[in-house]
Structures are given as structure tokens and as C-alpha cells.
Design brief:
25 helices, 3 strands, 578 residues, globular, 3-stranded antiparallel β-sheet
């Protein structure tokens, strides 16, 4: 009986029959499609995975091993078996970047023209493009990483990331969580903000029209995930970093050099100059009279004031962008070099660099994504037709605290009050410096002390949050003192004056790496917040520009390292490339 194939896979057949029945039910009544998506895909799959972990009784240290079979069959990009040549990596990275830009121009089929972009204020950081199949950007990937790092750091999941099996499972569970986060982020948006076109609803019914939009978002986000994995294994650097840098570079280029008028529907004039900073400067200086330079302009303070502060891409934003670039370039080049000598080859010396920005810019990416998710969920609980009725969290629910979490104006995607506003991004001097200088409130009517609390809260949250994520990041990416000590020992190098023992090297590295990690997290968080306060051209945000500059510099160094390993194969062992 046990050899009967039907009985062997009876559970699978029952589940398939159940799913087919639900789909048939939804075909008969399209209004039930939402129930299928939310009740089965999210709640059902999540509950099933949780119960599976809870009833697991294996010998492994973590109950997450209950999902190992699912992790093993998860479709993913295979790692190369041998060395991948530099030119092959370069072409792969270039191709992925081209595909990314193509996907940002593939608009969602059947989407209404008037939609809200929840990530509008974080678009430069979240990558992607509003209204396209890349609408979610890197949000699901980064959110899954945040959840796993927080769980690992809080010891909620009992995995030793120094163990290869545990680390492999950790990475596999994170991939599964990405699949789970895509519908979590897409379904509430579609069923509240990304409305189907009326003609699309007439053709397919409202339920299936919304489901098809969710499907397009899912496919786009999953392709982003695969492209990120492809770059990480077959290309240069990280796909997520590449997408962020590409989007910010595009915004900065357009904001600096665009000759198009600020208001597209109106002709170019002194009241509607070119949107790019440099064309605006040249046009204004060539066209405006002396009187207009001192007394004209939209604010009445002269075109000088407009050029400096009030334009869409003012000179102040261009100057702050240059300052951010120089500071990041200096910080990336600052490092502490630990002297090394070879244990068997006399005279062979080297250094192990411990960078000032040791944890890279990843903590800022994670922190910005966390704030974007706070903004998204508070907006959903405030204005979503269903979630706004949830007790306590929803605006119209019983015992509502929604106004303390985040309050929004009708049609707005940026909080105007509550916790979400106080920790939200401060985007340029118009949000804080000009109101303080003019001794007036901002556009939302906040008082001066509220504006100062907003600025202080944002800087503190970004700084402390980046420190926390920096610590979690090095523990999960082979950058801890223990991992570095193993790498040094494997290459035959040692610290002069100390025994050739990984434990000894680890103790020495413990003096440097943990403090530098916390400092680097605080530094990049503070620098990102400061850049946001100053503002940047192209509405790239200070955080976005900080990330882009750091990513470009790191990518350049990665290219140099790849070229060095191409010429000197012995270096591959030290860098862990083979």
C-alpha cells in the first residue's frame, strides 16, 4: 500500500484539490478573489509555516529546520562552480542594469491614471518606479532582511551564523520571507491605493482586476529579487546597491542638467525657469535684469533668492550634494591598517584594512527601508478602506490611536502629524531651516518647537538605528572578528609579535572591529540625516545620494579587487572567492 503513488502523494492531491476549488469559487464570484489572496496566500501560508515550526521535534538547534525541505527546493540562482572571469562579471552586471531600467518603464497593465505612491518620499532609496511593475522596488527584499536580522539579533531564532549549515538555513528562510513580504506589501496597496482602470474592471470584474495587478507586482518584485541574486553570484557587488545607485544617479543627473521647464505645461520664463540647476542658472543670469535679480522671483526676494533657495533644484541643493560627495569619498578612504606578516615567508608583509565605514552603507539602507515601512503601514491604517477600521490601530476602529501613530491629509502619502511625522525624513532646508529663519510654521502648520523636535528625532533615530543594524550586519556577513581571524589564518598570515593562532588574532581584532562597527553605523546614520537636512538636486534625498556615492566608490574598489584576483589567482583564497 505504501508503494501506491496515489497514497504516497495523497496530501498533495488534497491540497491541490482544495486550491482548485477555491479558484473555481473565485471564478464564479470575483469578489472572493481578495479572500483567496489574503486568506490563503498570506494568512494560510504564514500560519502553516508557523505551525510546522512549532510542532517540529528534530535534533537541530532551531525549529526553523522544519522548513529546510522547502528551502532546498526553493528556486534560486545557482552559484558558479569555479572562478568567473572579470569581463563575464562586468557584462552580467551591465546586462542586469539594462534589464532593471527596462523594467522601470514597463507600466502595470490595467492601472488607473490617478493612483497614490506610498513610497513617493522614499522612491530614491527604495528604487523602482511608481506605477511600473517595479513599484515595490527593493522594499520586500530589504524588509525581509530587517526582520531576519532583528530576530537573529534578539535571539528569537536560535541559529549560529558562524555555523555553515545554520547560516545556509538563515539565508534560505530569508528568501522565503521575501516571497511572503511581496504580497504583504502589494495587496494592501492594490486594495486601497493602486486602483484598476474602469475599463479593466468592466473586462475582468473588480476582484480579478485587482488580483491581476497584484500578480504583476509580484512578478516584478520577484524578478528584482532574482536580479539581485544574479549580480551577487555572477556579477560585481550587490544588485540592491546597484539599483539604488542607478536610480539616484538618474535623479541627480536630471535635477542638475534638465533643460525642461519646472512646470511642464507652461513655457520657460523667469517664473518657470528650466528645472535643472545649471540650465536654470544660465537662463536666469542671461535673461533677468538687475531689478529682477534683486526684486523679482516667486517669493518677492529677487531671482537671487529663487536661484539659491526657492527653485525646485536650487544652488543650495547642488552645493550640499557636492559636500556630501566629498565627505563620503573622504570617509570611504579612511581606514585603520592592521600589520600582517607571513608565517613562513620572511619579509612578506601586508595590512588588513579596517575601514572607518566598516559596515558600509547597508545600515542606512535598512534604516531607510524601516522608516518607509512605518510610513506605509501608518498610512494604510489611516486611510485604507478596510485597515482603517481595525481596532486600536485603525483611524476609525475602536480605541483608535492612529492619530498618534501617523495622521495624513486626504490624498497625501507623507504624514503630517504623529509618530510617523516626527521620525520621517526631513527633505531639505525648506522643511526646517527656512521656517526657522522666517519664524513661521511649516506647510502643515507645525510650530517652531515641533519642527525642532522633528529634526532632532529624525537625526537620533537614524543614528541609533544605523548603529544597531551595523552590529547585526557584520554578524551575518562574515565580517565579525572571528570570521576575519579565520580568513587571515587561512592565508598563512599573522600579526607580528603574536602567536599564529586564530583565537589570538580574534582577541586583537575584538579591540578594533566592534567599536569601529558601532562608530561606522553612527557615522553613516548621522551623515545621511545631515545630508537630508541640507537637501539634494533631483529630489534624490540626502540619504539616497549618500548611498549612491558610497555604492559607486565600493563598486569601483570591487572592480579593482576583481582585476587583482584575475591577475593574481592566489588572492582569491584570501578574499574567499574560491
Amino acid at each position: 500500500m505504501s508503494d501506491n503513488p496515489f497514497l504516497k502523494y495523497s496530501k498533495l492531491y488534497i491540497w491541490l484539490l482544495y486550491v482548485v476549488g477555491l479558484i473555481y469559487w473565485c471564478i464564479q464570484d470575483s469578489e472572493n478573489v481578495g479572500f483567496l489572496l489574503v486568506g490563503i496566500l498570506i494568512l494560510g501560508a504564514g500560519t502553516a509555516a508557523s505551525i510546522t515550526c512549532l510542532i517540529y521535534t528534530g535534533d537541530e538547534s532551531s525549529r526553523l529546520y522544519a522548513l529546510k525541505r522547502l528551502v532546498d527546493v526553493y528556486p534560486s540562482i545557482q552559484k558558479p562552480e569555479g572562478h568567473v572571469r572579470f569581463m563575464s562579471k562586468l557584462w552580467t552586471t551591465t546586462l542586469v542594469l539594462i534589464v532593471y531600467f527596462m523594467m522601470t518603464n514597463v507600466m502595470i497593465f490595467g492601472l488607473a491614471e490617478s493612483t497614490l505612491d506610498i513610497f513617493s518620499s522614499f522612491r530614491a532609496i527604495m528604487a523602482g518606479a511608481s506605477g511600473s511593475i517595479m513599484h515595490l522596488g527593493i522594499g520586500p527584499i530589504v524588509t525581509a532582511s530587517i526582520i531576519m536580522q532583528l530576530f537573529a539579533g534578539a535571539k528569537i531564532i536560535n541559529l549560529d551564523l558562524q555555523d555553515s549549515d545554520d547560516k545556509q538555513l538563515y539565508q534560505g528562510i530569508q528568501k522565503l520571507l521575501v516571497l511572503f513580504m511581496i504580497p504583504i506589501e502589494s495587496i494592501p496597496q492594490v486594495y486601497g491605493f493602486l486602483d484598476p482602470h474602469p475599463d479593466f474592471i468592466i473586462s475582468y470584474g473588480e476582484g480579478w482586476a485587482q488580483a491581476l495587478i497584484v500578480l504583476q507586482l509580484f512578478l516584478g518584485s520577484y524578478l528584482v529579487f532574482l536580479l539581485d541574486e544574479l549580480v551577487s553570484k555572477w556579477g560585481i557587488g550587490s544588485g540592491i546597491s546597484l539599483f539604488i545607485a542607478a536610480g539616484v544617479a538618474q535623479s541627480t543627473f536630471v535635477g542638475t542638467l534638465s533643460p525642461l521647464p519646472t512646470v511642464a505645461e507652461a513655457p520657460i520664463s523667469l517664473d518657470n525657469p528650466p528645472s535643472g540647476t545649471l540650465p536654470m542658472i544660465f537662463y536666469t543670469l542671461r535673461t533677468a535684469s538687475n531689478l529682477e535679480m534683486t526684486q523679482g522671483g516667486a517669493g518677492g526676494g529677487g531671482m537671487f533668492e529663487t536661484m539659491l533657495l526657492n527653485h525646485a533644484n536650487p544652488i543650495a541643493a547642488l552645493v550640499s550634494s557636492i559636500i556630501v560627495f566629498l565627505v563620503v569619498a573622504y570617509a570611504e578612504s579612511s581606514k585603520l591598517e592592521l600589520p600582517l606578516t607571513h608565517g613562513k615567508m620572511r619579509g612578506h608583509k601586508g595590512q588588513y584594512p579596517i575601514r572607518l565605514v566598516y559596515a558600509s552603507n547597508i545600515p542606512v539602507i535598512l534604516m531607510a527601508a524601516l522608516l518607509a515601512n512605518v510610513n506605509m503601514f501608518t498610512l494604510l491604517f489611516w486611510s485604507h478602506p478596510v485597515l482603517s477600521t481595525v481596532p486600536i490601530l485603525g483611524r476609525e476602529g475602536a480605541f483608535s490611536i492612529a492619530k498618534y501613530l501617523g495622521a495624513y491629509d486626504a490624498g497625501a502619502t507623507t504624514a503630517q502629524d504623529g509618530l510617523a511625522w516626527y521620525i520621517s525624513m526631513v527633505n531639505g532646508v525648506q522643511d526646517w531651516l527656512i521656517p526657522l529663519l522666517e519664524q513661521s510654521g511649516d506647510a502643515y502648520g507645525h510650530s517652531l518647537w515641533q519642527i525642532m523636535i522633528h529634526v532632532s528625532a529624525y537625526v537620533i533615530v537614524m543614528t541609533i538605528g544605523s548603529m544597531v543594524f551595523a552590529k547585526f550586519w557584520i554578524e551575518t556577513t562574515n565580517m565579525s572578528a572571528k570570521d576575519v581571524a579565520k580568513n587571515i589564518e587561512r592565508t598563512g598570515m599573522q600579526i607580528p609579535g603574536f602567536r599564529k593562532n586564530p583565537k589570538v588574532v580574534e582577541q586583537i581584532l575584538e579591540r578594533y572591529i566592534p567599536p569601529v562597527t558601532l562608530f561606522s553605523g553612527a557615522f553613516v546614520g548621522l551623515l545621511a540625516a545631515g545630508a537630508d537636512l541640507l537637501g539634494t538636486v533631483g529630489n534624490a534625498t540626502g540619504t539616497g545620494l549618500l548611498l549612491a556615492v558610497g555604492i559607486i566608490l565600493r563598486t569601483y574598489e570591487q572592480i579593482q579587487k576583481e582585476q587583482a584576483m584575475e591577475m593574481h589567482p592566489v588572492l582569491r583564497e584570501f578574499f574567499g572567492a574560491e
